[in-house]
Amino acid sequence: MILILFSTIFIIPVLMGWGKLMENIFGVLFQGITGKMLLGILGISLIWTVLCFFVPLNIYAEIPVILVGLFYFFKDTLYRSFYFFSKKDTFLIGGLSFVILLAGSYYPYILDHFGYYIPTIKWLTEYGIIKGISNLDFILGQMSIWHIFQAGFSNFSDPFLRINSVLLIVYALYGIEKKNWIHLCFLPVLLLFSQSPSPDLPVIIFSLIILNEIIAGNKNIVLLFAFSVFVFAIKPTMMWLPLLTFLYGIFIVKSKLITSVFGFLLLFLFFFKNIWTFGYPVFPVAIGDLGLPWKPNPEVLKISSQYAIQKTYDMQYSYEEIQKFSAFDHIKNWLFLEGIKSKINILFIAGLIFFSVFTWIKKRKLITLLCISLLIKSIFVLAFSAQYRFFIDVFFVILFVLLYDHLNRKKSIVIFSVLSLFLISLLSFPALIQHYLPSFRPGSFIAGFEEKQIYKPGTYEYDQFDSFQTGNLKFNVSKDYPYNFDTPLPAISASYIFDDVKTGIFPQLSDKNDIRKGFIWKKMTPHEKAEAENVINTIKNIDQ
Q1: How far apart are CA 98 and CA 61, in angstroms?
Q2: Residue 441: what are its φ and ψ, rounded to 5°?
Q3: Please, which residues bridge with residue 158 across strands?
Q4: 305 exposed, middle or buried (CB, 10 Å; 0-12, 13-18, 19+)?
């Protein structure tokens, strides 16, 4: 807790300093200290995204950003902004921050933390963005901008990767600063994302803030649309937000299309990043083939697509079984999966229907535009991979609109207190989740509370791996564990090795003397196939 607090006290002034610099260039997103923080996040993320095409995001990339942020923070006496909080608000900020820091100190339990988040951040800090890295380990082709942001701060400011805890405190400050108390009610649920740099947290928080600004009548379409595109770039399933902002600008603010240029430039950067790492504009969809030599093998893309379809049904059916479903079976089996996923899916459909009826009754232009945006997003998600983590933001948005005018400070604090006590209890006593929600798989990985968390947040170490070589690629594989969070680079997940060998290909360095030149795939020669088979046999023997 204490070390996360130090990171927060250090990072927030840096964000505010960069936010002030961004305001000098692009104008004000919205008034207040959190407006500067959000612009600071946007500015730093864009700078590091461009920079990591050329250099790794190591401490030499972090220190100049810190110095510039602190310079503007003190030069423009931005610390005085905190004096405008009342004594009552200050006590509330302290209480909220304590709960957030406590939740953030628990051990990470989201599986993507070990298989995707940390490996991505390791690549960014050691090498930067690598061309065709999806050929090495398919999941790394995502390289979310949020992980670029986290990677930049991971060398010195936030070595325990708790940037989400910092963001939660920023979000709490926003709710208090704007006197929009409903935001406090969402905080307890979001505490579940505070231990890992999950991109789900920032996109939910940013979307609620932008939606709040739109409802409040903010007419700065240039920055609202740009920030909405930034949210989309963090997680493309948030496509409804830039769509809403764009429609809001055209039909309500009556702005000209030229005002969206900044946002479209960010969109171009997002597409370029994905093309560089994955070979196509949007990961993991193989649409927009440019014929690039580092794009993934078609069979690998096919396997990924089949896996996404299975994930839609929570891996409860094989791909062959799903292919035999009738249209009715697709709907019925998705709605009535075993476990908690069924309840979430039913609630999602019921929520969309209820919100559509609510929109029809209200007949307000803004709510209509929001409903249209959510429905378009939902259609895309249902069509590609209807996993609950791709539409969880819809629940927050619907609740936000429905409860917007019905929660005051006192009610929101009570709701926050009760829900936070419940969530902290679940994190401290994970056996409760495992007993009452056995189908909630991440619950089985929650470790509970340890006294050392008061000082230092919980982190895992493994550092057990085997080294191999196939063709010109020397690589490492975690020993007797499926993820490479603590494995020296270059590392490949065992599951991708099995897929590649089954397909008859293997990742290779574009330049055997320079890993930064990226990866391609190539069909294996008999000798390389023998090397790969040896890797597979070794992995299987260790697992046994």
Answers
A1: 31
A2: -60, -40
A3: none
A4: middle
Output the six-digit token pair for 219: 């007419």
Alpha helix ranges (H) inside 278-430:
298-312, 319-323, 327-335, 340-362, 365-384, 392-403, 409-428
Pairing relationship of beta strands 473-478 and 505-509 according to DSSP bridges = unpaired
pLDDT tens-digit profile of 339-367?
Answer: 888 899 999 999 999 999 999 999 999 99
Residues forming a β-bridge with 473: 470
Q: Express each pLDDT in 24-39 by its tens digit.
A: 999 999 999 999 999 9
Cα separation values, 370 from 83, 255, 333, 356, Å: 36, 18, 29, 10
Kindly report the number of other CB atoms within 10 A of residue 93's CB atom: 17
Q: Which residue, 470, 424, 474, 469, is CA-closest to 448?
A: 424
Identify the residue whose tokens are 């232009």.
Answer: 365
Q: Which amino acid is at 289?
A: D
* Angle between helices 145-153 and 221-234 in degrees, nearest 10: 90
Half-sphere exposure of 114 (CA within 13 A, CB side): 19
Q: Is the peptide bond before 490 cis (omega within 30 degrees of 0)?
A: yes
**What span, in angstroms and rounded, lies between the C-alpha atoms of 210 and 224?**
7
In whole angstroms, what is the distance from residue 219 CA to residue 229 CA?
A: 16
- Calculate the CA 391 to chain-centre distance: 13
Which residues in 216-228 are b (16+ Cβ under 10 Å) and which e? eebebbbbbbbbb
How, if at all, do strands 465-470 and 473-478 pair? antiparallel
Rg of the chain over Cα atoms, rounded to whole angstroms, equals: 23
Find out whether 415 and 407 touch, Cβ atoms under 8 Å: yes
Containing H/E element for 282? none
| Residue 125 CB neighbour total at 10 angstroms | 21
Q: 21 near 72, Cβ under 8 Å?
A: yes
pTM above 0.85, yes or no: yes
The residue among 121, 129, 221, 169 whose CA lies nearest residue 7 is 169
Distance from C-alpha of 212 to C-alpha of 401, rounded to nearest angstrom: 9
